[in-house]
């Protein structure tokens, strides 16, 4: 009989169908094949492998083999509470789990009750930050990446404040502004993507309480972009990459209503010029900023050639055609990805 290390090495290079065949040869091969077959589990309604949840719930020795687990339930499948009970039981047996992705009913956060994953580094779920999620995060001390509360409602109550000992190593956050306010302060978060809610001045001030300094920020905002950027340059001086989707209504612009949409039809060149200058002035206050995107447009910049700190000079006027360009414009390729809009 081969040592376990060699059996595992052999199984790592086998396809699932071959592992299934190998598991029927002998008891030692059966265990080695199972360890590999259940190491990375991905379940979805379309794959018709939902029964794997029942297997993992009933056979905890197999659940112990799982390192990454993902389950995706589409809108056409609505499992009943007994299925979620089995899912909770299966999760409780995955004591060595390092990554968990749950795409299920947002109201089913109760399945996390009493479960602990001391080795988990990645967690994604559609649940709001309620008492179940808050208590669950206390039991994930190694967590580095968190995705939670992706579509928070405006009328929801503020999320419960996490204990100071929860997720002490967290580096990356994806979720609503509501959840971000409860989770990011006092933690070493460096990357923030707000998928719901509004990046207001109050939220930005709260996010600036990250102990590591936020370097990557993506969010939607209804605030005036220039004023918000000025605040960010004061509160988040470590920013390197920023992406903002602005829903601010510019007083200088003229709009028409088309159905349920409001369309911009007029914005004078002078207004554009002033707008660009204000944005550029705010961007120049960031010491480390490398890329900036506003509502799908990448802002142009170049490094100061006479500066030792490699600070960038940001585009301060609308792009012009080559025939109208002047020596005052930045010497940047207009077809580079800096100006690519989508």
List the helices and strands and how they pair.
Layout: H1 4-12, H2 16-22, H3 27-37, E1 40-44, H4 51-58, H5 60-63, E2 68-72, H6 81-92, E3 99-103, E4 122-124, H7 131-137, E5 145-148, E6 172-176, H8 177-183, E7 191-196, H9 201-207, E8 216-221, H10 225-235, E9 241-246, E10 254-258, E11 261-266, H11 269-283, E12 291-294, E13 297-298, E14 301-303, E15 312-314
Parallel strand pairs: 1-2, 2-3, 3-4, 4-5, 5-6, 6-7, 7-8, 8-9, 9-12
Antiparallel strand pairs: 10-11, 12-13, 14-15
Helix pairs in contact: 1-3, 2-3, 4-6, 10-11
Task: Please characterize this protein's 3D structure.
The chain is α/β, with parallel strands linked by helices and 342 residues long. The chain contains eleven helices and 15 strands. The protein has helices spanning 4-12, 16-22, 27-37, 51-58, 60-63, 81-92, 131-137, 177-183, 201-207, 225-235, 269-283; strands at residues 40-44, 68-72, 99-103, 122-124, 145-148, 172-176, 191-196, 216-221, 241-246, 254-258, 261-266, 291-294, 297-298, 301-303, 312-314. Strand 10 and strand 11 form a beta hairpin. The chain starts with a helix and ends in a 28-residue tail after the last strand.
List keywords for this structure.
20% strand, alpha/beta, 15 strands, 342 residues, 29% helix, 11-stranded mixed β-sheet
């Amino acid at each position: 009989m081969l040592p376990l290390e060699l059996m595992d090495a052999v199984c790592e290079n086998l396809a699932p169908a071959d592992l299934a065949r190998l598991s029927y040869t002998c008891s030692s091969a059966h265990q080695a094949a199972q360890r590999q077959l259940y190491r990375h589990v991905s379940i979805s309604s379309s794959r018709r492998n939902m029964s794997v949840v029942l297997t993992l719930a009933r056979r905890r020795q197999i659940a112990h083999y799982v390192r990454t687990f993902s389950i995706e339930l589409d809108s056409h499948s609505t499992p009943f509470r007994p299925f979620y009970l089995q899912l909770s039981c299966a999760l409780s047996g995955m004591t060595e789990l390092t990554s968990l992705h749950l795409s299920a009913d947002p109201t089913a956060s109760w399945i996390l009750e009493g479960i602990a994953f001391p080795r988990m580094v990645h967690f994604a779920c559609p649940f709001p930050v309620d008492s179940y999620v808050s208590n669950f995060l206390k039991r994930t001390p190694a967590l580095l990446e968190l995705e939670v509360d992706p579509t928070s409602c405006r009328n929801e109550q503020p999320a419960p404040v996490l204990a100071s000992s929860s997720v002490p190593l967290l580096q990356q956050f994806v979720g609503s502004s509501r959840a971000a306010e409860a989770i990011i302060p006092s933690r070493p978060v460096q990357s923030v993507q707000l998928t719901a809610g509004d990046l207001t001045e109050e939220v930005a001030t709260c996010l600036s309480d990250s102990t590591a300094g936020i370097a990557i920020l993506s969010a939607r905002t209804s605030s005036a972009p220039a004023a918000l950027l000025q605040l960010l340059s004061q509160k988040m001086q470590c920013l390197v990459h920023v992406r903002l989707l602005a829903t601010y209504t510019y007083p200088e612009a003229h709009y028409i209503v088309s159905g349920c949409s409001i369309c911009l039809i007029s914005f004078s060149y002078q207004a554009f010029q002033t707008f660009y200058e204000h944005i550029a002035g705010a961007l120049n206050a960031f010491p480390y900023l490398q890329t900036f995107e506003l509502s799908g447009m990448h802002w142009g910049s170049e490094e100061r050639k006479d500066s030792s700190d490699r600070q960038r000079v940001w585009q301060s006027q609308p792009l012009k055609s080559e025939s109208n360009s002047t020596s005052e414009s930045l010497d940047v390729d207009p077809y580079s990805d800096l100006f690519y809009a989508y």
